Structure formats: C-alpha cells, structure tokens
Amino acid sequence: NFLDEISNEAKEIGAVNTVISKNGKLIGYNTDYYGFKIIVERLNLQIKSQKNFICGAGGSARAVIKCLEDLGGENYLVTRNIEKARNNFSNFKNLKIISYEDLEKINYKNLIVNCTPCGMSPNIDCSVLEDNQKNQYNAGIDIIYNPEKTKFLEGFKVFQNGLLMLVGQAIKADEIWLERKIDNQIIDEIYDEIKKKIYN
Asked: Per residue in 151-176, is it b (16+ CB within 10 Å) or e — as a string?
C-alpha cells in the first residue's frame, strides 16, 4: 500500500527490506535474495536441475527458495508442519514440501540450507541434521553467523555461514540506493574485514 512498485523477487518472496525513491516513485526490493546468491556464486555451486533442501519455513527461507528457483534448482522445503507450509509457500509452484523423515529417504542430494534458528548462540548444540547424514550432500549453508561454525556446518567439505549473506544484502542495498555497481573485490575486502572484527 505504501509503495508504487515492487521488484519481481520481492513480490514472490512477499517481503521488502530496501526502498528507493526514484522519479517520484517509491520502489521496494528484497536484498536477502542477492545476499544468498553471492554465497552460491562464491562457493561455485551447481544448482540447475539439482536437488536442494531448505530447512525451516520462516521469512528467510522465502528469499533462499526464490534464489534457488531462479537458478533452476529442484527445491524441497523441509519442515515439521507440512500443511502450514503448503499454505504459506503456495506461490512457489515447483517447490516440494517434505518432512524431516521424508528427507532421509531421498537420494542424490546437492545442497542443504539451514534457515531455522537451531544452532544460533547460545543454543550452539542444536542442529537440524545428524553428522552421519552430511556426506550425502555436496554443500551446506547456514544463514546463522553466530557462532562462526555452527554444529550444522560441522562435517561438510563445502560450507558457508550467513555472514556473507548479511554483507551481500547490505552491499546490494548500497548499490540500489547509490545506483552504482560495487566490484566483487571490494565485496570480498569488506567481508574479510568484518569477519576479522567479529570472529577474532
């Protein structure tokens, strides 16, 4: 009601976190989408036609799902409340919604993303995945960034926490507001500097 235009990804995600005033119009964007995409690009992950799993049915999962959908992935939302998720995620037509029990039965898994608060400090002993299940995946991403390496991420050969997503979405907001492109090298330098300050 307050915006004149909403970007395509923000419409489908159902959330706006960045607004710009341009030519007398207020335009809304969702930069979490771009923050997650930076992680996928930095890890050099193959998403197209691959089975990707998103754990958790909150708002952050929507940005992750939209990004993976646009990259051509075969995506599964893993949740404890399937009926509720079917209602809340009905706009994602190709999304499969499954239980954690169903997850164990699926073969040829590519990426798994934790979009739940499980494992966030101070509850660091929590993980949505058992250690002996992690070798079934090519990569794991946790959108949590405190602690640096959650219990969920332990055991993956290719992994990333959520700090890069946080930095990436802030960079995208800056690009939108200032109408400029920020070089990847500068993004890496900012990320490394913040990483040092937070974790050292």
From this structure: bbbebbeebbbbbbbbbbbbbbbebb
Which residue from 60, 100, 53 is spatially nearest to 77, judged by alpha carbons?
A: 53
Query: Side chain identity at 101, as an amino acid letter?
Result: E
Amino acid at 186: I
Residues 98-157 pLDDT 10s: 999 999 999 999 999 999 999 999 999 999 999 999 999 999 999 999 999 999 999 999
Q: How many domains does the chain have?
A: 2
Give the global pTM: 0.95
Structure tokens at 84: 């509720």
For residues 61 and 87, membership in a common domain is answered with yes
Distance CA 199, CA 180 (A): 30
The CATH number of the domain holding residue 147 is 3.40.50.720
Tokens 């029990």, residue?
101
The DSSP-derived string for 128-146 is SS-GGGGGG-SEEEES--S
> What is the spatial distance between Cα 148 and Cα 62, in angstroms, rounded to a whole number?
23
Distance from C-alpha of 187 to C-alpha of 113, rounded to nearest angstrom: 22
Are 21 and 65 found together in one domain?
A: no
Q: What is the pLDDT of residue 1?
A: 72
